[in-house]
Amino acid sequence: MTNFDLHMHSNISNDGELTPEELIELAHKQGLRYVALSDHNDYRGIEKMQEAGKRYDIQVIPAIEFDTLFDIHEVHVLGYNIDYHHPYFTDLAKQVDDKILVGMAQRFEKFRQAYGVTLDEKEVYARTPKGENPFFTLVSMMLNDPANKDISEFQDYLPGGRRSTPQVVNFYWDKCCVGTDNYVKVEYPDFKKTVDIIHETGGIAVLAHPWKTFYKRENLLEKAFAWGIDGIEAYSNYHEPKHNAYYEEIAKKYHVLMTCGSDFHGSKKPNIMMGEYGYHKDDGADILQTFLKKLGR
Questions:
Q1: At what angle do helices 134-144 and 92-115 cross, to 10 degrees?
Q2: Is the bond preceding 189 in cis, omega lying within 30 degrees of 0?
Q3: How far is residue 297's CA from residue 286's CA, in Å, rounded to a whole number?
Q4: How many CA atoms lie within 13 A of 23 on its CB side?
Q5: How far apart are CA 167 and CA 115, in angstroms?
Q6: Quick check: helix, strand or coil at residue 5?
Q7: Three-class SS of residue 269?
Q8: Which residue of 31, 78, 96, 201 is most buried, as measured by CB atoms within 10 A?
Q9: Residue 165: pLDDT band with limits 50, 70, 90
Q10: Can you count the helices (H) and strands (E) in the chain?
Q11: Distance CA 287, CA 147 (A)
């Protein structure tokens, strides 16, 4: 069993549940010694979690998970050990949230056309807790509306369906990402610019849960490496065993870091456990030490 988890979210992320302090309590119960708080485009929980970590001698590595646009692909990049006080990060979360809201109107219309559903935009926004992504509310309301229970395209995502957990996340990857009819392009910050900023602020850039986007698409991976990616989150709860094995092989082939992260969020992804990401070969000490050495720790 490993004693580290390099990818998790607090309630400062727009889809997280627990406070930074509560994450530390859970990390302690899980026997973790090294964790990285990587909220979406936001750094505000880092110092709170570092302070809480001192109680249990848990090392908290500062990180941000950045939403970026890699050509036409929405790609997440983990920036570790950055100087998060840099001005670039000050309003980044709000800027990205504003871009997401611009695309929401298109999403409503896409769903209406695709499934013939009735959607009340005002109600969706009214039910969305402050600071959270309205996409989660929209999809959850749409899928769980009794009026939509017989729509064939929704069956896999209804309770007990094969893609029902996590419901909204799986619906996004299956029905809304690049290449699907419901895809909406959000003008996220540029991938290469984000990697450059991570490096300029003293950090390292890791490709988060590459999963289907980069699977057996070595040309895309080579482009990411050419643009400065330092590592791959090879082991992730998004991945099937075949993805984990592939990305571990790629990391070794290209001599880049291999990291592991649960992408823990809490109730938004209820089947994901902190500290669990599919790596069971050994205690992962070599992975952790190589990572910490790269950080200069």
A1: 20
A2: no
A3: 14
A4: 40
A5: 17
A6: strand
A7: coil
A8: 78
A9: confident
A10: 11, 7
A11: 49
Sign of CA dihedral 225, 228, 233, 239: negative
Cite the DSSP H helix spans in 189-229.
191-200, 211-214, 218-226
The confidence score (pLDDT) of residue 180 equals 93
* Predicted local confidence at residue 5, as pLDDT: 98
What is the pLDDT, as a whole number, of residue 15? 84
Residue 50 in contact with residue 68, Cβ under 8 Å?
A: no
Residue 151 has pLDDT above 90, yes or no: yes
Encoded tokens for 165: 């957990």
With both helix axes pointing from N to C terminus, report the angle between 134-144 and 167-175 in degrees, rounded to the nearest 10. 90
d(CA 291, CA 285): 10
Enter the tokens of residue 21: 């302090």
Domains and CATH numbers, the chain: 4-94+191-295 (3.20.20.140), 97-175 (no CATH)
In this structure, what token pair is assigned to residue 114? 């695709």
CB 230, CB 204: distance < 8 Å: yes
* Tokens describing residue 263: 């992408």
Cβ-contact 218, 250 below 8 angstroms: yes
Spatial separation of the C-alpha atoms in residues 248 and 210, rounded to whole Å = 12
User: Could you count the other beta carbons within 10 Å of the beta carbon of residue 279?
Assistant: 18
Listed in order, strand segments (DSSP E) in the chain are 4-8, 34-40, 59-70, 73-80, 204-207, 231-236, 257-261
Q: Helix or strand or coil: residue 11?
A: coil
pLDDT at 14 over 90: no
CA 270, 151, 136 angle in degrees (round to 5)?
Answer: 35
